[in-house]
Design brief:
heterodimer; A: mainly alpha; two-stranded antiparallel ribbon; B: 520 residues; alpha/beta; 6-stranded mixed sheet; globular
């Protein structure tokens, strides 16, 4: 790519003047639209912590309980992150939970004969094929993704019933269950790791913040984000008193989310994906292969679902044909809580993860406070609708305010 | 048929908008029952404003509207309908999921939407119009021509006495136009309705209308019986002796493909279904070629076929003598950039800031480690685009949706300046933007050409083509019907070629034998 040097209209030559400063819009950056899910999460945790202390139960904020919530979130969280990718590309995938269950069944049914790793590979392959099928029907036949994946959701569940003949399958072979235990149930002492990540975030934030201040730029919201994130992790380490067990699924989820976040935010692939969802025709006319990006989003989502299914099966070491039923709705709810647009082109995987944590904190809170499961559905539903209302109203406001 | 007392008269109608633009400066218009009145004018001459005043969508700032001898004031389209004026707008506003019957009687106040009574009324309408459609078909299943007929039925069904047709044939195929012509003749000659017929096609205006009014810059410059006119006279009235806003810069470089030089672009039998008939082109490096044509003439289709954005296109495309793959990605990689016609739908990504819109097609130049983007470089590109093209924005962080049309258009053009684009395809780059931005964009085209880049521009403003192009191809009905060197043609001639059958070219397009409307 030669940036035309011989031309009169050589845009690369135009000097960047010192007025080039990112003007942060703090009002927007800290508004409900951008930060709502974090506020809601913080508010919920504070409330639960306050109530548990007040009524004299074990503190909600205990390391034990917090790591439990995060552990419970991990599978749905990963699928929600992948769902966010599909939503950003402008599509929709209702079949995640069925695909995850299918992958789990394939693993459990084949692990005894083939061994764990080949069976896991088979399960992943099957899941990716299903994703390819979803994507191919949506992109090449041109049916709405909602309808297609509604169909595959049901059909794949039917496939599971056929495959298992409607019965639970399980593995008992010790050589397989040992690997499963290690794969899913392994724990790591994460104190130092988290401490280092926290410090790195904090130091990086301070560094770019100080550099900006020296250059006379105003403070950017991203700097505060790094500082706050780092601080939270360091405080967590301090509060833990030196012991922070991380279970494998949480580790997987963290690495996975960080990778997806980085790809979406800082790479060509991410930029093009947002463009495809934001305006497919404009993306196509800019030379982007829209079909490929959308297809790959489906495959990626199903692949993640397949991995989640493997973790799920490894956790239980058996699989019920109706396992994970309904989980797709939790996955989508998490993405919506995170402010992902159902029309494509907008969304953040970190916020989606916060949305998933919010949902599981609610569930966990209900259990801890013994409020009874009957209330749970009602409250969760209201939270999702309230979140969507905040995003929609905030969106309209911000559009009417900016006018030139 | 002699002209009786006009059913609708406009006296000194003026329209000034809140922002100070004056669209009409004292227009007089007399429309008589039983006659077809043609209304013509270039883009921005005030045709649409006049139609909106007639249909009650706008109120005139000054002047009188006299309906059947009585002065009236319309405050809504509904009031106009009630009075007896029905308008068929260019973009046919039908409900695609409803049936033909339901669409035609959409305004009807009955309780039942599919009663026998409605069917009877529909039958009566079809009989009188001499045109039959299955009333229970959904509108979405109809061709554009049939939809146009449904819209005409709708207007006719209200029992209106004045029917305004705003460019009813603009997006129709030849055979579909005939349907509309027959309907117009039926309405005026047999039913005795007054018809105001707006069109860019000079031949159909000549064949169909009894009387012609030409608007220019908000003023009526000609009103005459069609029998006393010819296409050339009308074209002259439309163009006028305009003071060209752009100086015609001397273009002394002869850019016509000299022998021995590989053409920048070669197309061989490039075609696309029924929309574009095979076209073979050669464009030299640095040459600026204009595609003159009316809406639906196949001009955008040529660009999309070259750019490989049209999946159904057939034929060969070579850039600098080399073929490239069949995808927009391959075209971009080969060095072609397209600025699409519909800025909002095809051009910008609305959620993106200026800088992210600008870097979209050329992300390779600003990445490291195999794909990680440098925000600093990206924003620098945003700044340089803002400076060089004088985009009115305080920083590249502004959302493109917050820019005015002209500035957003500059963003979609600036995209292509950061990679080595050898051929620019500009589709109506100056549509709907202010004069200043227009001049900026045209100046830019010249600069691109001076650097040896080739440009193909599509425009319905022929004056602009004459100002910047070396060579102009005229499109009509999906064919390239004429080729002119820009210094050997005139706006007048282009208008005749694009809108009629003027010129001595081997025009395979013989417009229909229409003579029903001319016996005034």
């Amino acid at each position: 790519m030669s940036v035309a040097k011989k031309h009169n209209i050589d845009l690369s030559r135009v000097p960047v003047t010192p007025t080039d400063k990112v003007k942060p819009n703090w009002r927007k950056a800290l508004g409900l639209q951008e930060m709502g899910v974090y506020y809601a999460l913080a508010l919920l945790i504070a409330t639960l912590a306050g109530v548990t202390v007040y009524i004299g139960q074990d503190n909600y904020l205990s390391i034990q309980n917090m790591s439990n919530v995060i552990y419970q979130t991990s599978l749905i969280g990963m699928m929600a992150v992948a769902m966010t990718v599909v939503l950003i590309s402008g599509n929709f995938d209702l079949s995640v939970a069925s695909v995850a269950a299918f992958s789990a069944v394939v693993l459990v049914a084949n692990a005894a004969t083939w061994g764990f790793w080949p069976a896991a590979g088979l399960a992943m392959g099957a899941a990716m094929l299903l994703g390819l099928l979803n994507g191919a029907i949506v992109q090449f036949v041109g049916i709405n993704a909602f309808i297609v994946t509604l169909g595959t959701m049901t059909a794949v569940r039917g496939l599971i019933l056929l495959y298992t003949d409607g019965r639970s399958v399980s593995v008992t072979a010790p050589e397989v269950t040992d690997i499963m235990k290690a794969f899913e149930g392994g724990r790591h002492e994460g104190f130092w790791f988290i401490l280092i990540v926290g410090l790195v975030l904090f130091i990086y934030g301070s560094w770019i913040g100080l550099r900006g201040i020296k250059a006379g730029e105003p403070l950017r919201p991203a700097v505060v984000g790094y500082l706050a994130g780092g601080l939270v992790l360091v405080l967590l380490c301090w509060a833990s008193g030196g012991e922070l067990p991380i279970r494998n699924p949480v580790l997987y989820m963290s690495i996975f989310t960080a990778t997806v976040w980085f790809t979406l935010s800082f790479t060509k692939i991410g930029r093009r994906l947002y463009a495809v969802g934001g305006n497919a025709e404009a993306a196509r006319l800019s030379g982007i292969n829209v079909t490929k990006y959308r297809l790959m989003a489906f495959v990626f989502c199903s692949m993640t679902a397949g991995f989640a299914g493997i973790l799920f099966a490894s956790r239980l070491r058996s699989m019920n044909p109706s396992g994970l039923q309904g989980a797709e709705l939790t996955v989508i709810a998490a993405a919506i809580l995170g402010g992902t647009s159902l029309f494509g082109g907008a969304g953040s995987v970190i916020k989606t993860l916060a949305g998933a944590l919010l949902l599981y904190s609610l569930t966990n809170g209900f259990n801890i406070l013994n409020l009874g499961a009957n209330w749970q559905g009602l409250i969760e539903g209201c939270v999702v609708v309230a979140a969507a209302a905040i995003y929609t109203i905030g969106d309209k406001r911000s559009k009417s305010k900016t006018g030139g | 048929m002699q002209a009786q007392l006009p059913i609708m008269q406009l006296h000194g109608v003026e329209k000034t908008f809140a922002n100070g633009t004056t669209a009409l400066r004292g227009v007089n218009l007399n429309i008589a029952a039983g006659r077809v009145h043609g209304l013509l004018g270039a883009n921005g001459a005030g045709k649409s404003t006049l139609i909106k005043i007639l249909s009650g969508a706008y109120a005139a700032s000054k002047g009188d509207m006299i309906w059947r001898g009585k002065s009236v004031r319309l405050d809504s389209p509904k009031a106009a309908n009630k009075m007896g004026v029905a308008t068929v707008h260019q973009h046919i506003p039908l409900v695609p999921t409803l049936s033909i019957l339901e669409n035609i009687f959409l305004d009807d106040n009955g309780l039942w939407r599919n009663s026998a009574d409605l069917h009877r009324r529909f039958d009566a309408l079809s009989k009188r119009m001499g045109y039959w459609l299955d009333p229970d078909l959904a509108v979405s299943d109809l061709s554009i021509g049939q939809r146009q007929m449904v819209a005409i039925f709708q207007a006719f069904g209200t029992g209106a006495d004045l029917i305004v047709l705003d460019e009813p044939t603009a997006s129709l195929a030849l055979d579909e136009r005939e349907l509309v012509y027959a309907a117009v003749k039926q309405l005026s000659k047999v039913e005795g309705k007054a018809v105001l017929f707006v069109s860019h096609f000079l031949d159909e205006v000549m064949a169909l209308t009894d009387q012609v009014t030409v608007l220019r810059d908000g003023v009526v410059v000609m009103t005459a019986e069609t029998g006393n006119l010819n296409e050339s006279l009308i074209a002259e009235a439309i163009v006028g002796k305009q003071v060209a806003a752009l100086e015609h810069a001397p273009r002394h470089h002869a850019r016509q493909s000299a022998s021995g030089v590989t053409p920048r672009l070669t197309t061989k039998n490039l075609a696309s279904g029924g929309k574009l008939h095979p076209i073979s082109l050669e464009i030299a490096p640095g040459e600026v070629v204009g595609l003159a044509g009316l809406l639906g003439s196949g001009r955008s289709e040529v660009l999309h076929a070259i750019y490989r954005a049209d999946q159904n296109a057939t034929g060969e495309v070579l850039l600098d003598g080399k073929p490239f793959g069949r995808s927009t990605g391959a075209a971009v990689a080969a060095g072609i950039g397209l600025v699409p016609e519909d800025r909002n739908r095809q051009g910008i990504v609305p959620d993106f800031e200026i800088w992210r819109n600008i870097t979209l097609p050329a992300l390779d130049g600003i990445t490291s480690f195999g794909g990680v983007l440098s925000r600093k470089l990206e924003r620098a590109r945003g700044w340089s685009a803002i400076r060089t093209l004088s985009i009115k924005a305080s920083s590249p962080d502004i959302l493109v949706t917050d820019l005015s049309g002209g500035n957003a258009q500059k963003v979609t053009i600036a995209r292509w300046f950061f990679s080595d684009v050898k051929l620019f395809l500009l589709d109506e780059p100056t549509a709907g933007i202010d004069v200043g931005a227009k001049a900026d964009i045209l100046r830019l085209v010249r600069e691109l050409s001076d650097e040896g880049r080739s440009v193909i521009i599509v425009s319905s403003e022929f004056e602009e083509l004459l100002a910047v192009c070396d060579r102009i191809l005229v499109m009509r009905d999906g064919r390239c019907i004429a080729e002119r060197s820009a210094d050997k043609t005139s706006e007048h001639e282009l208008l005749l070629l694009a809108g009629g059958h003027g010129g001595e070219d081997d025009t395979p397009t013989t417009p229909q034998e229409l003579n029903g409307g001319r016996n005034a």
